[in-house]
Every structure is written in C-alpha cells, then in structure tokens.
C-alpha cells in the first residue's frame, strides 16, 4: 500500500467538539470499560478483555502494531469541553476484508449526540486525505440500525453480506464508492 505521507503516532486531530488521538497503553482502563459494555459485546463482539491488564495487552498487540506499520489505526475520542474519554474510532486492517474497515464505538451515555459521526468523518478524511486510501469499508450486524445509519451518512454504500474468518455471524458490508 503506498501512502501519501505517514504522520507520526503523536498526531492529534481535532474536530469542532472532539480531540482524536492514537490509542496508547495509558488508555487501558478506558478500553477495559468500553469493550465490556453490553452494546459493544452485542454488536462488535466479546474481545475477552477481563482485566485492565488484558486491555493493556490488547492495545500493545492489536492497536500499536498497526499504527507503527501503517501510521493509522485506532484512535481515542475525547471531548474538548470536559476532556472526557468517550469512545474509539479507527481504520483497521481486518482478516477477511480486502479493504481497510472503519469502526467506531462510544460509551452509551455519549450516544445520540453526533459524536460518533463527527469522529468517524474525521478519521475517514485522515485515511483518505492524509494516507491516500482509495476505499474504506465498514461492517456491522444486521440489527445494529444506528451503526448502519451512521455508515450510510459517512457515504458508504451497502454491497453485500460477509462472514469474517473464525466468526459465525453474517455481517452487512459497506464500501465507499
């Protein structure tokens, strides 16, 4: 994959209401909390993060290697006004998909305020404008209607259903045009 440029992992991005920065091991408590919410487990999956140490290892083994390899990956979403960690958004290389995949998740109390769209729109533009990605995909479960709406609002179009390796659930697959 040829990239236009490779901003350092220290790059911090901003939107009107949010600060978006690469995940770090300092975010282990937050990842532990987020990845164990009922909605995360239902719609994204159980990542088997049962302790804060598991969360730290997940960051070290899953998030950091991709950021080091590609320059982009999973970002922490923080509110500007209160400096609260509210979610994660990222572009991921995912086994079973040929095109990098955008994903997002927020703590439930921050849903419905436009934060996920604001963060995902910014990360999509980082991927396409800063890294020269030609296409971005997204996957979601058939019953995650709010995620489907957000994916479509980002300009991705439904293409077909896919089942990822080592998974049973058939997912909806979207792609940029």
UniProtKB/TrEMBL annotation:
Residues 18-177 form the N-acetyltransferase domain. GO terms for molecular function: acyltransferase activity, transferring groups other than amino-acyl groups. It holds the Pfam family Acetyltransf_3. The keyword Calcium does not apply. The lineage of its organism: Bacteria, Pseudomonadati, Bacteroidota, Flavobacteriia, Flavobacteriales. InterPro entries: Acyl_CoA_acyltransferase, GNAT_dom, N-acetyltransferase. It comes from Chryseobacterium limigenitum. Keywords: Transferase. The keyword Nucleus does not apply. This is Protein N-acetyltransferase, RimJ/RimL family.
